[in-house]
Amino acid sequence: MAAIIPYRETIELEKAFASAMKSIARRADLKTHIEQTPALYSLLNRAAARYVTGESRSDGLAAQQRLMDKGYAVSLEYIGENTTNLQDCEDAQAELSQLISDLSTRNKAARVSFDLSHIGLLLDHELTYRHLIALAEQAKHANIELFISMEESAKTDDILAIYKRAARDYSHIGITLQAQLNRTEQDLIDLSSGTSRIRLVKGAYQEPESISIARSSILNERYLRLIEQAVEQGHLLSIATHDESIIDEVVRRGWIQSSAVEFEMLYGIRPDLSCKLNAAGHPVRIYLTYGQEWYLYLCHRIAEYPPNLFQAVLDMSAAEQLDPLRDYNGKNTQLVPRH
Ligand code: FDA
Question: Which atom of ligand 1 lies nearest, measured to the CA of 219?
Answer without folding.
Answer: 3
